[in-house]
Write a structure and sequence with these properties.
It is built from 13 helices and twelve strands. By secondary structure, the chain is of the alpha/beta class.
Length: 333
């Protein structure tokens, strides 16, 4: 009878060595987003996940679930509160669910450049709103909520040139059901036409509307320029993508892993600035080659005009306490 004892001992030894060599089970976080994986924002989210794994040498894994794979926003927010989702990346407007004043973080035509908006976002007022969200829902932004860029800026796509206030008063602007946007553009003199985003192309083509607002990064993919060949950079409002996290889950991590998440988020912010600049520069070059005209727009003139609207809202008690003071202090820096 053949003796298998040597083979058995060798197999046991090999299994033992393999067990010693196998990595300890990694810390795993689930990261939900609306954006497709191949979109500019989707690439930024995956970059963040890759940096976490790289910095932790595989000890911390962030699994990205794009395109609402884990559910719609309402479902994700419930999971974020429960801790079954650890991160959700989106504009901070969704935090209105717990603190309605957060809808004012992107004040239209208040900040002529991103740096002044970032200063406002770092004010005690806005920090207080985020602290209130955490106290109510247990949700906290990871790192600087302005670091990861969306947009990266706002534009008007129009059938005739729009260079400032006088031209705004002549245009029929595609509008969406947001009362703040309706009030602002009405004050600026635009004739508003309510159209769904998916109806905008045909609305511009038929002349129902002569202009639409848009993030710069979406201009090329939506093809509105085919029927409205003028683009004006307005800087209407600024946006960042908040990496909202379950605060208890973050606090339960080792200090090393907390610092890794913060570093990966800062790196993702720098990468988002790079990729958004590349996207918009390429978009402008491509469209100019197709005959689209980029119009110089008097941003400061519109900002100055809007000061009157904000004064009216303050006098009527329609603004959160301290909002206008904090915003104007940031704008003056």
């Amino acid at each position: 009878m053949k003796d298998f004892s040597g083979s058995i001992r060798a197999a046991i030894a090999a299994l033992a060595l393999g067990a010693l060599a196998a990595p300890v089970s990694a810390e795993t976080w689930r990261f939900a987003t609306k954006m497709p994986a191949d979109s500019p924002e989707g690439l930024v989210f995956q970059y963040f996940a890759d940096r976490v794994e790289e910095l932790s040498e595989g000890g911390f894994v962030v699994q990205v679930f794009p395109s609402e794979q884990l559910g719609t926003e309402a479902a994700i927010l419930e999971q974020l509160e429960l801790g079954t989702v650890n991160l959700y990346a989106e504009d901070a407007f969704f935090l209105q669910k717990w603190v309605p004043d957060i809808r004012w973080i992107s004040m239209p035509f208040m900040f002529p450049d991103r740096e002044k908006w970032q200063s406002f976002m770092h004010s005690d007022l806005v920090k207080g709103w985020f602290a209130e969200v955490e106290a109510t829902a247990g949700i906290r932004p990871l790192g600087d909520p302005t670091a990861v860029i969306r947009g990266p800026y706002r534009v008007l796509v129009s059938s005739t040139p729009v260079a400032g206030l006088e031209d705004i008063g002549k245009m029929r602007l595609r509008m969406y059901p947001d009362q703040l946007a309706i009030d602002v553009w009405t004050y600026l003199g635009a004739d508003l036409r309510m159209l769904a985003w998916t109806e905008t192309y045909e609305g511009l083509k038929s002349g129902i509307a002569t202009a639409t607002t848009s993030p710069a990064a979406l201009v090329e993919s939506m093809r509105h320029y085919e029927v409205a060949p003028y683009i004006s950079r307005t800087n209407e409002y600024w946006q960042g993508i908040v990496f909202a996290m379950n605060a208890e889950a973050f606090d339960g991590l080792s200090e090393e892993y907390q610092q890794i998440l913060l570093q990966a988020h800062a790196d993702a912010g720098a990468y988002s600035a790079q990729i958004m600049t590349e996207v918009t520069d390429k978009m402008q070059a491509n469209l100019e080659g197709q005959g689209v005209t980029f119009v110089d727009f008097d941003i400061q003139g519109v900002v100055d005009h809007m000061a009157g609207w904000y004064d009216q809202q303050e006098a009527a008690g329609a603004l959160p306490k301290g909002l206008l003071e904090a915003a104007r202090a940031a704008s003056a820096e």
